[in-house]
Amino acid sequence: MHYITAGESHGPQLTAIVEGVPAGLKVSEESINSDLARRQSGYGRGGRQTIERDTVEVVSGLRFGRTLGTPVTLVVKNRDWQNWTDRMAPFGDVPAGLVREVTPRPGHADLVGALKTNTDDCRNILERASARETAARVAAAGIAREFLAELGVEVFSYVTSIGSARFEEDDPMVAAPDYKPLDIETSEVRCPDAKATQAMKDAIDHAKAAGESLGGTFRVVATGLVPGVGGYATAADRLTSRLGAALFSIPAIKGVEFGLGFEASRRVGSQVHDPIVLERGVGFSRTSNNAGGLEGGMTSGMPLIATVAMKPIPTLMTPLETVNLDTLEVELASKERSDTCAVPACAVVAESEVAFALANAYLEKFGRDNMADIKAAVKSYKQRLRTVSK
Ligand code: EPS
Question: Given CB 3.0 to 4.6 Å as the disulfide criterion, which of 61, 97, 122, 253 pairs with 101?
Fold first, then answer.
């Protein structure tokens, strides 16, 4: 199940095509729209989100709410397009007086993209490099999420820090996080702790007042996984690398850890690896989850726990110095309207990427054609693992 997206941030629409979708999968418009709304929200978002009301339109691959096994095309319209029809027109001459973007923002794709594509207008780059594109990913991932949900797999996320404001939680590698979804989603920063939420909001307020932006960290958790999804035999099979690549494909992601992550490198082996136990009639399990649900490039059957770090958004209201591409003189970087902090939104995008990577690995293991056969294969596999005995 793979997706491709198309569309510029201020073009008419974002489009996603998902191919490799099994037939007979129930898809709910409401759940996709709810994920799109979650991606738009979060304390510290900018003016764009007051313009957009992201909702999905499905124009292929579904009939009466079920997939046909054909490519699914999903569209999210950009309401802001109405304000950009002249500057983003697909045809026609360059309008007189068009303001080109010639002061690339440090940390954004502006400069390197302009050099690479030989343009003197960074707008040609930033229109696509903008994280607006992630709305299409979230819409597309609705298919992967519904697929996983039918197989008992849920993916959620929560924010663990914004700037230096942290959520000091109990070690999720000892007891799996089981926060109430409502506590996460009603927090304006998608953090289940009220005190930490306030500290994070304060940090965002301070950053905004200073013309700064802020990054942060969040966890993505997947529960209900069976062991043995992914593979150890080839580099391409390894789910750890596939999940890592999926998460690093999100703009502004600078770090990904699974389970203990970097902390594992500081401990001795016996303090890292998770003892194996067998519960008769249930199957194999672990007494801890320092591996974060991945062993040997495969799911272990424990919850998948990824911790992800996002850098601050490069658009600054107190901009850094850059070089003007016309004059080649030092100048301050451009100030596009932007977010102070998009960490809560990014966590929703990360759920989407994790859902795609997991859905693909499930499809490889359990078949691809239709949901009835896939569900039967998962059921029989679970039965085999439950009844393991001498
Ligand atoms: C975004 C839409 C964009 C930005 C942001 C994410 O809207 P606009 O550029 O019209 O203000 O708010 O883009 C970036 C973070 C970026 O670096 O370009 C969205 O819908 O997520």
Answer: 122
